[in-house]
């Protein structure tokens, strides 16, 4: 008998977003059918740049209340060639993350079986990281302004804000995440030599929180030196925590080092579980390949698997990832991974692997 049921809001939004979200729904429906112990009810939301261009709003009135009723949100990507990126990002993605207090952004990266890293010496198993990005403060909190527009003396500020509350909750989450992984190893990234206020607060809070996690080994890195360590000594890293801005950049580097931006997922979590969390691939709407049927759906498969884990369906989530890796191992891959398969071929192949597993 089916006991567990989850409602998932799907929102492909722009560009390849709907293509990869639809592919993931197909795989999850297969998984649910085979597993039989839980159900997923999908509701699609058409919030996108098209809707914005028609109505002037990304989120219709009362929309967030409707969204909040769901257990999780599976998001594609937002961004259109004819809408400035800061309008689309703040209009949709951040307009969900911020009120829903999704303060922890989690970005795992690894080298899949059958794929290769651009790092000559790194193989499957050598690079297996989780980057934890603070998702509500720093330079992305929206503090700042512009004065004297258009004048030669025009001034703009982008103020980085760090609250003890905000730093402590992400640090605690990071130590907990490190503690759950086999190596129990955390690297705290800052820039506390040059940024002598906010980043020094990060260092201090890290030392305080560390006392509650004696079994977690941890170290500190400056963000510039961290880029070198990621490239030169990937095996020395496991769980990583950094600010909104620093981790945004480091996680794109991480995705590239693992082989492609087309495989990396991200979770925007409200660890208090008062609001639904939102799951998305880290890539954007990729206008250059939209509608061509070549988008790599793997990032969104991994994303969906992360979502299932968060909902409590660890076993099914793991099966989904095993199926995805079985497919990459067989060499069925899109162009970004050096293959020649399309979105549909990869999706069908993952469904076939699932069939074999049950
Ligand atoms: P992008 O991630 O959309 O594309 C970068 C490059 O990677 C492109 O060559 C693209 O074809 C390729 N790529 C991305 N995802 C792929 C996939 N699944 N399979 C195969 N190839 C893939 O980043 P870009 O071009 O900087 O941004 C395009 C738009 O997306 C912009 O409007 C940007 O603001 C938005 N964006 C939105 C994000 C979000 O919704 N969270 C994140 C990043 C960008
Ligand atoms: Mg980014």
UniProtKB/TrEMBL annotation:
Transmembrane segments: none annotated. PROSITE patterns: IDH_IMDH. One of its GO terms (molecular function) is NAD binding. Its EC number is 1.1.1.83. Its cofactor is Mn(2+); Mg(2+). Keywords: Magnesium, Manganese, Metal-binding, NAD, Oxidoreductase. Residues 7-350 form the Isopropylmalate dehydrogenase-like domain. InterPro entries: ICDH/IPMDH (IPR050501), IsoCit/isopropylmalate_DH_CS (IPR019818), IsoPropMal-DH-like_dom (IPR024084), TTC_DH (IPR011829). It holds the Pfam family Iso_dh. It catalyses: (R)-malate + NAD(+) = pyruvate + CO2 + NADH. Belongs to the isocitrate and isopropylmalate dehydrogenases family. This is D-malate dehydrogenase (decarboxylating). The lineage of its organism: Eukaryota, Fungi, Dikarya, Ascomycota, Pezizomycotina.
């Amino acid at each position: 008998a089916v006991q567990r049921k989850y409602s998932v809001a799907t929102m492909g939004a722009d560009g390849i977003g709907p293509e990869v979200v639809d592919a993931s729904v197909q795989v999850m429906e297969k998984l649910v059918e085979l597993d039989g112990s839980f159900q997923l009810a999908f509701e699609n939301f058409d919030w996108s740049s098209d809707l914005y261009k028609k109505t002037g709003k990304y989120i219709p009135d009362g929309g967030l209340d409707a969204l909040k009723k769901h257990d999780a949100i599976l998001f594609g990507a937002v961004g259109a060639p004819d809408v400035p990126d800061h309008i689309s990002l703040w209009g949709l993605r951040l307009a969900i993350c911020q009120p829903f207090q999704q303060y922890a952004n989690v970005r795992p990266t690894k080298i899949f079986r059958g794929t290769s890293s651009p790092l000559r010496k790194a193989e499957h198993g050598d690079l297996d990281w989780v980057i934890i990005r603070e998702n509500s403060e720093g330079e992305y909190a929206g503090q700042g302004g512009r004065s004297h527009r258009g004048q030669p003396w025009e001034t703009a500020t982008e103020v980085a804000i760090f609250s003890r509350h905000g730093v402590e909750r992400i640090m605690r989450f990071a130590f907990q995440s490190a503690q759950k992984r086999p190596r129990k190893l955390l690297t705290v990234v800052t820039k506390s030599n040059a940024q002598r206020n906010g980043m020094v607060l990060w260092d201090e809070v890290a030392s305080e929180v560390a006392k509650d996690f004696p079994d977690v080994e941890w170290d500190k890195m400056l963000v510039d030196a961290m880029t070198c360590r990621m490239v030169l000594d990937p095996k020395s890293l496991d769980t990583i925590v950094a600010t909104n801005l620093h981790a945004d950049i480091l996680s794109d580097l991480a995705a590239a080092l693992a082989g492609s931006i087309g495989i990396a997922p991200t979770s925007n979590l409200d660890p208090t579980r008062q609001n639904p969390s939102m799951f998305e691939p880290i890539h954007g709407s990729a206008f250059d390949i939209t509608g061509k049927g070549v988008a790599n759906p793997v990032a969104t498969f991994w994303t969906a698997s992360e979502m299932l884990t968060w909902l409590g369906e660890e076993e099914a989530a793991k099966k989904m990832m095993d199926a995805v890796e079985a497919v990459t191992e067989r060499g069925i891959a899109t162009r970004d991974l050096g293959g020649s398969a399309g979105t549909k071929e990869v999706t069908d192949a993952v469904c076939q692997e699932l069939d074999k597993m049950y």
